[in-house]
Backbone:
């Protein structure tokens, strides 16, 4: 692997640290956590207001979910239809089975144009295949044009969110990066001054670089069109000024009909940025002679998506329209930010998508990076039942690991195996309760509380106490109250005063 | 009315006072309660950690024990959520059609405590008294899995002397999450710290909920930090009367 690729190891799921360890790096970083919670609170408040004004929001969610489910149900035919229509309109469609193939297709297309530079619209799919470092190592410099992506590129940072990738960076940090990299010593941290600096930097790129790379929000099978929504207008520049446009898109992004955009654009804008409509909605079909890019390529990326599609319970993962509502609603992400997820896709959607894109060979800690609180499912505009998929993946992780020798002695595995034996027979469970009561005395202080436990219990007591075990379990109380501890109690006396 | 009490494994072991309160409360309301002595666990801990094979045996056990019950009342919303959300899929995976049918017939008769009181018994005022300022923690499973809505608040509103305090960001997770609290102990603790700040800001004396699991988490931190607030299960507040006031033990 080239040194440039290694620089991006933080978000490479094959190299990243497990989530609990990676989270430790950020939990004690007050600046980062403040930046994350502040940004999330702003977006959340905007979203809540705009969702509330939509009286038919639940009906819209159901419609969006049904449209996405239908697209995935017949994805193959829809993609072929897209290819036919796009090709007929003068575009070129390429199929890439994995990241390496997609990178090579894009590099070859750039070389055909003798391009040494390219401008880019924000695309998480290109981050997924680590396109920028690959191009860089092959002599092509890719310039990001989305404001957040510029901040990250110039500051050599990594995205921590799929809609607002630099939400972990605050204004004064942006000022520092711009001042250093653009040579603007007297730059203030006034948002207008920062935007003006970015505009001057970008204008020169837009006017001189004739090749652009984009992602896409939707592919329309019926018309062969591509749709991109954005907020800053940099996308519109990249889609109209260059001679050559290369659009990299995951195969799951297809929509059957043009009319489906009516629903999808409504839920996407409200869920993603808390807007009624995205400021810029670009739609194009192939090539229009004399107007816009005359050399247009679409690279359809599989990279693990087909195998997700093939599994009925997992398929819903691919309904995702990358709005990040789940990320913003997630109480775990709120504490850790995005980098702890070790993937360009953080938060709840990342926790289910990343391990599946890795064919469950990497990122097995991610399905556990959730308290299963369900906030993600509640806000998802296409109704992906993320907790359900998390549970499927957890079951797969355990099935992979359970026969490993090391796991046999892992306290969690051992504990859960023993617990299962106990729960299988009431007498075993009751005996364990009695033995546990005796054992717990070793750890229980005079105030009746446990302040410190060994092994995995120490994970609990590092920040919380645990009340000592009570002298009588409920079932013992019930049996004593009924007066016959041996026999099963069928009908206790009604209206007896509580015996305690 | 007859009802069968499923106490849950951790209430039986760690919080028997909640079970005693459910008995006192429901018997006061004229419910004829029975308790199956062979009950153990609903399987949630195993199923949620990925040990589905182990969860199967507990899930089967529950249905075999309770299939003939007239009504099942459970003072834990996460265990009820386990049954409603996960049991059907688990039985399907097991391929046991008899159990699938038995469970489908049993499911409508399973209630979480606040559902049992309001939907089945049709009562809101259960004659209780608890003269304290109380913050209600709406647990994730109660809010988003069972959709309990305002049921707990309607019950609390009728308790003599009780003043309800509203927790800011009240529907945000406390960070317990079962084995999440030890597998991701540090993140769980960070979530707990944020939640505790919101709970304590209410100035309440007690924090209540319908899940002792969340309360174990919150109460454990309150005790560690000498926070001056205690946790108490909603059943204990509802069981409390002027003649026999609840004594919060946590």
Residues:
């Amino acid at each position: 692997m080239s040194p440039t690729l290694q620089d991006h190891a933080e978000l490479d799921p094959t190299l990243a640290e497990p989530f609990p360890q990676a989270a430790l790096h950020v939990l004690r970083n007050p600046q980062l956590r403040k930046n994350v919670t502040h940004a999330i609170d702003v977006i959340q408040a905007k979203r809540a207001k705009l969702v509330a004004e939509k009286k038919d929001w639940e009906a819209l969610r159901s419609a969006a979910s049904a449209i996405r489910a239908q697209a995935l149900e017949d994805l193959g035919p829809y993609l072929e239809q897209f290819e036919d229509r796009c090709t007929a309109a003068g575009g070129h469609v390429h199929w890439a089975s994995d990241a390496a193939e997609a990178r090579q297709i894009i590099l070859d297309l750039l070389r055909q144009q003798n391009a040494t530079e390219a401008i880019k619209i924000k695309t998480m799919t290109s981050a997924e295949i680590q396109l920028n470092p690959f191009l860089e190592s092959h002599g092509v410099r890719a310039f990001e044009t989305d404001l957040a992506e510029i901040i990250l590129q110039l500051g050599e940072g990594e995205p921590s969110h799929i809609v607002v990738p630099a939400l972990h960076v605050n204004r004064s940090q942006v000022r520092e990066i711009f001042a250093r990299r653009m040579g603007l010593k007297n730059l203030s941290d006034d948002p207008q001054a920062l935007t003006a600096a970015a505009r001057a930097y970008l204008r020169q790129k837009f006017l001189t670089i004739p090749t652009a790379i984009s992602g896409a929000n939707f592919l329309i099978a019926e018309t062969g069109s591509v749709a991109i929504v954005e907020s800053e207008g940099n996308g519109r520049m990249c889609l109209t000024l260059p001679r050559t446009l290369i659009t990299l898109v995951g195969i799951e992004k297809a929509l059957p009909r043009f009319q489906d955009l009516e629903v999808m654009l409504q839920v996407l804008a409200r869920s993603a940025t808390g807007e009624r409509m995205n400021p810029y909605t670009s739609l194009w079909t192939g090539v229009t002679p004399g107007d816009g890019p005359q050399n247009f390529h679409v690279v359809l990326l599989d990279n693990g998506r087909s195998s997700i599609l093939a599994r009925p319970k997992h398929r819903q993962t691919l309904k995702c329209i990358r709005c990040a509502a789940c990320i913003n609603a997630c109480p775990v992400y709120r504490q850790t930010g995005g980098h702890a997820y070790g993937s360009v896709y953080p938060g709840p959607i990342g926790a289910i998508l990343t391990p599946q894109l890795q064919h469950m060979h990497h990122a097995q800690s991610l399905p556990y990076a959730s308290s299963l609180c369900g906030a993600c499912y509640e806000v998802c505009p296409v109704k992906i039942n993320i907790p359900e998929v998390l549970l499927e993946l957890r079951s797969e992780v355990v099935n992979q690991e359970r026969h490993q020798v090391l796991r046999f002695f892992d306290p969690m595995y051992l504990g859960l195996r023993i617990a299962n034996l106990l729960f299988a027979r009431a007498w075993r469970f009751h005996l364990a309760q009695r033995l546990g009561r005796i054992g717990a005395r070793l750890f229980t202080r005079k105030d009746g509380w446990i302040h410190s436990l060994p092994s995995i219990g120490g994970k609990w007591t590092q920040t919380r106490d645990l009340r000592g075990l009570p002298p009588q379990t409920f079932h013992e109380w019930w049996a004593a109250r009924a007066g016959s501890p041996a026999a099963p109690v069928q009908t206790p006396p009604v209206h007896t005063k509580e015996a305690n | 009315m007859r009802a069968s009490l499923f106490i849950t494994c951790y209430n039986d072991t760690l919080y028997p006072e909640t079970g005693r309160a459910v008995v006192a409360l429901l018997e006061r309301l004229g419910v004829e309660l029975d308790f199956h002595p062979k009950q153990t666990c609903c399987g949630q801990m195993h199923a949620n950690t990925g040990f589905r094979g182990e969860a199967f045996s507990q899930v089967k056990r529950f249905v075999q024990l309770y299939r003939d019950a007239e009504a099942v009342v459970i003072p834990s919303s996460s265990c009820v959520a386990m049954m409603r959300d996960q049991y059907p899929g688990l039985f399907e995976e097991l391929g046991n059609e008899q159990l699938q049918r038995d469970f489908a017939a049993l499911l409508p008769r399973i209630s979480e405590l606040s559902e049992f009181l309001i939907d089945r018994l049709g009562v809101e005022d259960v004659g209780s008294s608890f003269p304290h300022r109380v913050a209600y923690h709406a647990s994730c499973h109660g809010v988003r899995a069972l959709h309990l809505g305002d049921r707990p608040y309607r019950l609390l509103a009728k308790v003599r002397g009780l003043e309800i305090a509203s927790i800011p960001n009240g529907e945000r997770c406390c960070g317990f999450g079962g084995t999440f609290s030890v597998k991701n102990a540090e993140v769980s603790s960070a979530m707990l710290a944020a939640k505790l700040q919101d709970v304590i800001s209410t100035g309440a004396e007690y924090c209540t909920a319908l899940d002792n699991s969340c309360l174990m988490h919150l109460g454990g931190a309150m005790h560690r930090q000498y926070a001056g607030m205690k946790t108490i299960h909603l059943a204990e507040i509802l069981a409390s009367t002027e003649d026999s006031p609840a004594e919060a033990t946590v």
